[in-house]
Amino acid sequence: MRSLYFTLLTATLLLIIAGCSTTSKVKSTDDNYLNIAKEKFGDDATFTKSPDDSYVLCMKEVKGTATSPQNHIDYFAYDLSKAEVVLENSIDNGKVGWYSGFQLEVVNFPGTMAEGQTLDDYTKIINLKTGKSVSKRDLKQKD
After folding, report:
1. CB neighbours of 50 closer than 8 A, spacing ≥ 6?
2. How far is Cα 66 from Cα 45, in angstroms, rounded to an integer?
3. Cβ-contact 138, 120 below 8 angstroms
4. What is the spatial order of strands in the sheet that 133-135 belongs to?
5. pTM listed for this prediction
6. To the nearest whole percent, how much of the chain has pLDDT over 90?
7. Overall domain count for the chain
8. What confidence tens digit (pLDDT) does each residue in 43-94 have?
9. Which of 55, 89, 95, 98 is deepest in the core (most CB within 10 A)?
10. What is the CB neighbour count within 10 angstroms for residue 141?
11. Residue 59 contacts by C-beta under 8 Å, 6 or more apart in sequence?
């Protein structure tokens, strides 16, 4: 009986210790992108995880004013598994968001669109795994 009690106690302690070490690693990764964002953007950063939780989009947006109506967005994408920034850029008069688990959608709002154009002509999809980008219109035509 004593042996069974000792075995259960040892197993419980090992599980608790193993659980703590995993939590520390995740917290360290989270702290890393938070620290990078704070260094680049101060306290004005916003964070959006990718749909599959493998990346984080960190952004700082400066809204337009009456004298300068275009917004400005500085952003970077952080790969949580590699614990590194995989893309960093900025855009004026646009928006940035997730297109898929590993692709960003970056829209650059035009002043006026030519006949036959849509917003897809001014939208690019950036693949964070390859670093390549393609216009949303071209991507849709391939499907």
Report:
1. 56, 57, 98, 100, 101, 102
2. 23
3. no
4. 94-98, 103-108, 123-127, 133-135
5. 0.75
6. 61
7. 1
8. 999 999 999 999 999 999 999 888 888 899 999 999 999 999 999 999 999 9
9. 55
10. 9
11. 41, 45, 46, 47, 48, 73, 74, 75, 96
Residue 115 identity (one-letter amino acid)? E
Q: 116: which 2 tokens?
A: 């036959």
For 127, the domain range is: 2-142
The arithmetic mean of pLDDT across residues 3-28, rounded, is 42
Q: Rounded to whole angstroms, what are the CA distances from 107 to 21, 77, 102, 118, 136?
A: 41, 16, 17, 11, 9
pLDDT, tens only, 102-123: 999 999 998 888 898 899 999 9
